[in-house]
Amino acid sequence: MRMQIRNSRQGYGLVAVTLHWIIAFIVFAMFGLGLYMVDLDYYHPWYTDAPDLHRSIGIVLLALVSARLIWRLSNPQPAPVAGHGQLQRLAAAIVHWLLYLDLFIVMISGYLISTADGRSIDVFGLFDLPALLPAEKGREELAGIVHWYAALVLVSMAGLHAAAALKHHFIDRDETLRRMLGPSAGK
């Protein structure tokens, strides 16, 4: 069975599925990279390269999450899975929107850390994303605190989201996870 590009009432389309999994992979990889780079000392070969990579991937993530949100708002959402009550559907919707909100908090605070000194962000050597605010003493520290805690919340929520999908798949045996894997998954 060929996957449609757009969402349908039966399931998610190729664009939504692809963006979902790419974003999920990047979020967990960025969390790991962030944990790794904060402990690097000045003489480590990755001392400047890891933060540069983290910032560049963060900008790509911002573009992907923005595209995913636009795609979500411009496409029909699949019909609720049979057997999911109204409270369960409401909880799922709230969690999804909180994931988007926290993603943006993490990315905006990361941008504010990187541009606190008024310098732009070099994105893979391809272009510079300018600092939109003038340099401000103390912004980097405050943004860093927000970035750290928002990232912890994001990874925790994403982990719970994944656990819920696995529960739906293996315990409830419903279509929740299969719809995000594609129309032929699990059949």
TrEMBL record:
Domain of life per record: Bacteria
Subcellular location(s) of the protein: Cell membrane
Keyword terms, alphabetized: Cell membrane, Electron transport, Heme, Iron, Membrane, Metal-binding, Transmembrane, Transmembrane helix, Transport
Sequence ranges assigned to domain Cytochrome b561 bacterial/Ni-hydrogenase in this UniProt record: 12-182
A matching Pfam family: Ni_hydr_CYTB
Membrane topology according to the record: Multi-pass membrane protein
Broad class of where this protein is predominantly found: membrane
Keyword check for Transcription: no
The UniProt record lists the keyword Magnesium: no
Cofactors (names): heme b
Cited PANTHER family: CYTOCHROME B561 (PTHR30529), CYTOCHROME B561 HOMOLOG 2 (PTHR30529:SF1)
Record family assignment: Belongs to the cytochrome b561 family.
Record-given protein name: Cytochrome b
Origin species: Allohahella marinimesophila
